[in-house]
Specification:
alpha/beta; 11 helices; UDP-galactose 4-epimerase, domain 1; two-stranded parallel ribbon; 15 strands; single chain; 7-stranded parallel beta sheet; globular
C-alpha cells in the first residue's frame, strides 16, 4: 500500500516511514522541514512543502494516485513554545490541518490516521486513563491536538471519511536499526534530559516534584518505545476497516497508544542507571507551575481493535536513545 505521511521527516514520522517500508508499504512524505530532517527522507518519495498548500496536495495525489490512507503527524509539539506563541500553534496545527482535511476530502482520500496526544486528558484517580476519561487539555499545544481531533471527527460525521485518532503517551528511544531518532540538541523531554546529563552536556537531572500521590512521590508517566508506536500506525493502516468493524462500525475512533504500565520519574532514573552503568547525578526540586502528577494508558482498546500492544521494555528505549545520541553528535546535529 502507498501511504501519505505528513511530517514524515520528523522523529516519529520518519520512524513510522521505516516501519511502513519494513512491512512492504510505500510512504510518501510531505514535510515543510521546519523541524524535520531532510536526511530522513533519503530514498523515499518526498515533497517539501506545507500541508495547507492545496496545489501541492493536488500534485502529490496526481503523481501517486494509489495513496490509500494518510497518516497525519505534522505539527508543532513543544509545550513551552506553545505557551509563548499560541498564535503560531493554532495556525500551524489547527488552521492548516483544517485545510489538509479539506484537501483529502476533495481528493477522495477517505482514511486518516491522526497523531494525537495523551496531553488532552484530565487527571483521574489511580492515574490510568481510558479513551472515555475526562478531557482537559492544559496548554495551547494540547488544545490544538484536541481541536484537530474535533475537526477530524466532524469531517468524518459529515463527509465520506473515516478517522482514527491515536493518542500517544511518552515516546522514547529510536529506530532500533538507527535509521532515525530524536535530533534536538537541547531536548525538553525527560529521557532526553537524562541523556544530556550522561553525556556531560548538562550537570544534573532535576526531578521536579517529589510530593505527588504516587508510590515514591515523583510524577508518573507511560513511556512507549517509538518503534512500538510506529508499529501501531502500521497496524492501524493495515487493519483500518477491521478496527471499525470490531468497534461496531461508526466513522471515528480514538485509541490510546501506551504500554499500560505507569513508571515514576525515580523509577525511570533507576532504569537509566541500570542501562548506562553509572549513577545519574540528580537533584530533587519542587514541582513547576503547570506540572501534574501524570497518567498512563489503559491500552485495552489498541489490543482489541488493532491487535497491537507495546512489546519493547523501557530499558530498550533507554539503550536505543543512548546509541542514537552518539550518532546524532557524530553527525553534528
Amino acid at each position: 500500500m502507498k501511504i501519505l505521511v505528513t511530517g514524515g521527516a520528523g522523529y516519529i514520522g520518519s520512524t513510522i516511514c521505516s516501519a511502513l517500508e519494513d512491512g512492504g508499504h510505500v510512504p510518501v512524505i510531505l514535510d515543510s522541514l521546519v523541524n524535520g530532517r531532510r536526511e530522513f527522507t533519503a530514498g523515499r518519495a518526498f515533497y517539501h512543502g506545507d500541508i495547507a498548500d492545496d496545489a501541492l496536495l493536488d500534485r502529490v495525489f496526481a503523481e501517486h494516485p494509489e495513496i490509500s490512507c494518510t497518516i497525519h503527524c505534522a505539527a508543532l509539539i513543544v509545550v513551552p513554545d506553545s505557551v509563548a506563541n499560541p498564535e503560531q500553534y493554532y495556525t500551524e496545527n489547527v488552521a492548516k490541518s483544517l485545510r489538509l482535511f479539506g484537501s483529502l476530502r476533495r481528493l477522495g482520500c477517505a482514511r486518516v490516521v491522526f497523531s494525537s496526544s495523551a496531553s488532552v486528558y484530565d487527571d483521574v484517580p489511580g492515574f490510568m486513563v481510558t479513551e472515555d476519561a475526562p478531557l482537559r487539555p492544559r496548554s495551547p499545544y494540547a488544545r490544538t491536538k484536541y481541536m484537530m481531533e474535533m475537526i477530524l471527527s466532524d469531517f468524518c460525521a459529515a463527509y465520506d471519511m473515516r478517522g482514527i485518532a491515536l493518542r500517544y503517551f511518552n515516546p522514547i528511544g529510536a529506530d532500533p536499526q538507527m535509521r532515525s531518532g530524536a535530533y534536538i540538541a537541547a531536548p525538553s523531554h525527560v529521557l532526553g534530559k537524562m541523556v544530556a546529563v550522561a553525556t556531560g552536556r548538562e550537570p544534573l537531572f532535576h526531578i521536579t516534584g517529589v510530593e505527588w500521590p504516587t508510590r515514591d512521590g515523583s510524577g508518573i508517566r507511560d513511556y512507549i518505545h517509538v518503534w512500538d508506536l510506529a508499529q501501531a500506525h502500521v497496524k492501524a493502516m493495515e487493519g483500518f476497516d477491521d478496527a471499525f468493524r470490531r468497534a461496531g462500525d461508526g466513522r471515528y475512533l480514538v485509541i490510546n497508544l501506551g504500554t499500560g504500565a505507569g513508571v515514576t520519574v525515580k523509577e525511570l532514573v533507576g532504569a537509566f542507571e541500570q542501562v548506562w552503568g553509572n549513577a545519574l547525578p540528580t537533584r530533587e526540586s519542587p514541582a513547576r507551575p503547570g506540572d501534574v502528577a501524570g497518567a498512563y494508558a489503559n491500552a485495552d482498546a489498541a489490543r482489541r481493535l488493532m491487535d497491537w500492544q507495546a512489546r519493547l521494555p523501557i530499558t530498550a528505549g533507554i539503550a536505543d536513545a543512548l546509541r542514537w545520541d552518539a550518532i546524532r553528535v557524530r553527525r553534528g546535529w
